[in-house]
Amino acid sequence: MKKIGVIFSLGLSVLLLAACGKIGDSTSTGNNVAKNSSSGYQTTGQNSDSEYEGVIKNGKYLTSKARGVGVAQNSDNILNLKSFEAGLTQLSKDQFPTDSYVFREGQLLTSATVEKWLDRKSKDNPDGLNPIDNGQKDANKRNPMYVQQLEEQDYMKQKDGKLTLSGITVGIGMNTKDYYEKEKYGATFTTNISKEKMVQEGQAAAAKVLSRLRNTEGVPNNVPILIGMYQQSSNDSLVGGSFYSYTVSKSGNTISSWNDVNVKSYVFPSTSTASVPNDNDETSFESFKKQVQNFFPNLAGVTAQGQYENKSLKGLHVNITTQFYSETEITSFTQFIAQTAKTYLPNGIPIDITVKGSDGTVQSFLAKKAKESSYYTHVFSSY
Amino acid sequence: MKKIGVIFSLGLSVLLLAACGKIGDSTSTGNNVAKNSSSGYQTTGQNSDSEYEGVIKNGKYLTSKARGVGVAQNSDNILNLKSFEAGLTQLSKDQFPTDSYVFREGQLLTSATVEKWLDRKSKDNPDGLNPIDNGQKDANKRNPMYVQQLEEQDYMKQKDGKLTLSGITVGIGMNTKDYYEKEKYGATFTTNISKEKMVQEGQAAAAKVLSRLRNTEGVPNNVPILIGMYQQSSNDSLVGGSFYSYTVSKSGNTISSWNDVNVKSYVFPSTSTASVPNDNDETSFESFKKQVQNFFPNLAGVTAQGQYENKSLKGLHVNITTQFYSETEITSFTQFIAQTAKTYLPNGIPIDITVKGSDGTVQSFLAKKAKESSYYTHVFSSY
């Protein structure tokens, strides 16, 4: 009697597996369901200590349950998406170090959930984090959209070939400018939001998000949840926005305190209305720019994004654009930039330099890590 | 009497210098003319042992006297320009090693000269390397254009702060397909040129070029001249053409013998009409491609250019294009590629991998040198 039961259940599981179509290589026939769900995983491998390994399931990257939501929200300034995600990962690294955690794209909040939360509150959408539409069209009378984007990241620990959810990070992007139209396809108007109001609305939204997350299936009460608050940059900005505060909830669903983040991005060269926090960096950049700009008879455009923590420069992304007339010009220019950057640009911070032709194609690339003094160089060639 | 003479000549040289307008920083007033011409030089600095330093004169890169001629000639397939110039520099490295020679863009042949040489021979243009227009429009009756492009590179030796011309390289690009129109803005027709005819016409052109170069002012009779012969690829090719032979003239103006070059470029994956010389490489590439292609739910495009010497693969440029939905996807993908490339792609050759988004923007980049086993990786980020 017992024997027949075993044969029957084996037969059933083979049937079930066959019905699934493709079976992952690491899943051998006859495993029980519980084991399947934890063993079909691999990781991407870690090529750099400073990056997380990612999760691969049944041979494919485990993409976010809310994949693509961020792209749609940020169509006006894609820099906000890039800097938001890079900054969120950076914040997470302090809390969930890359040597002991594996990164998993958010699996708890679905596209539908995130879209509802980011929308206005209404009869049909009680979960909206943005205020109800009060019907007003005037910039100062309407209720603006405060919350612009939201992203979940999961941090896993590996043990006995299983991955366990061991940390969650949520980033919330807040507007200081809310762009809106009075009629469809009409002109764009702007409601300005004060920094104070933004912080206040952000804390209210974060409290709701934390409480909802704790009540989500699969989220243990004692998993640390990091919430990072991000201020979106305006649509005409040449750098993305920045994180201004964060909180870590060890357990439970209330937020006890917030920590300030003093990281902000700036554009080089600085202008009369937007100057970088440290004059010395501007002088260094200007000297570098002058050398590089005049290398060819035709001018080269030289700009940069710099990230500051208080008054201290933490990193530079330099962009150089010029017209090239030959491969040899690209090679010579790249070697010259490597020397010039070493001489003029600040030491002790990570710097990368991208060199583009006048058609926007990347022609060469230079980079150094914080502790390196010389630049890695690469010229994009063709056979 | 003698003293007055010295004062007079000093006064004259100051006048002459002032008339030149801008005077280079390194040129102090009162130097004689001969010294001027050799001292206003700097070099770009050398960031990689395998690249030449380039020449900077009065703070600016010394661009080719025929700058831009190559770009105009290659408008149909820009890959021919890139691979022609990269290959020419590569040929030169064997003859004029990077540790003892400095690279100078061609200063002997001007745009006007090169344009005349590349044109047809005619009453107005006795120096044309291409045959006279016989008036025929039929593909097999007309005289095709055999010589498509021509480039000069100079190799200098540094001694006592002076640069001396110590080697010249000239590349000559030959057609196997000559594209022409029967009437302006009309359809494009093609005259096919046999390999034998191409080689024969190329040797005749090279003999004229050598003899003319030796008679050019500033070219000593005993400076080695390397002439490299390049076969242009067709307009629809996804790789550039290749060098098929070269000769080195130690002195004098006749060519004694030619050396074969067995380097050729191929596209991966191979097709039924164009397969790579070594099946194992194709298998490796296909395995790599399969792993990478299926990483995301959406497919990634994976292609490569490979360079072969006979049946031996000498290098790979891999191109991967896919749609990304977040920065974290780019980071995870890049780490995965680094591991997968290490596992599947051939060892012992230089490989670089460029990862682009669906809009064509470069998102990340991986590379290894021939002797390295791990890949250098870089994700293009934004603040």
TrEMBL record, chains A, B:
Keywords, comma-separated and alphabetical: Lipoprotein, Signal
Domain of life: Bacteria
The organism's taxonomic lineage, starting at the top: Bacteria, Bacillati, Bacillota, Bacilli, Lactobacillales
Residues making up the signal peptide according to the UniProt record: 1-18
Organism name: Liquorilactobacillus sucicola DSM 21376 = JCM 15457
Region entry Disordered, spans: 29-51, 119-141
InterPro entries: CamS (IPR011426)
Composition skew (Polar residues), residue ranges: 29-49
Name this polypeptide is given: Lipoprotein, pheromone
PROSITE patterns hit by this protein: PROKAR_LIPOPROTEIN
